Amino acid sequence: MTVLPSLGKHTTLPFCYCQPTKGVHVINVIATDMDSFSSIRYSIASGNIDKKFLINETMGDITVLDPMGLSRKYTLVVTASDGEFETSTKSCCQDTGKPAEWSAI
Question: How much is the pTM?
């Protein structure tokens, strides 16, 4: 039986009002996998224009990598893979346009 990692839905998270600096935490993406023997790897599949964000491939933490010219509208699509089967891909966070909120789709 093939069991895919599943990305859950996140709640709206606070974000910096000011110009973010390198290393500022944006969101933590969490996937679950019914295969207890596998470890999940995360990657940003799309939306990371000009490589402004970095994802920790083992923990799912997304942080600001390059704050220079950071705009207010990003939709990051994250892929979770257990290395054995297919991957699960989902939009994980999208700027709502409000001053200090990011929300998951």
Answer: 0.69
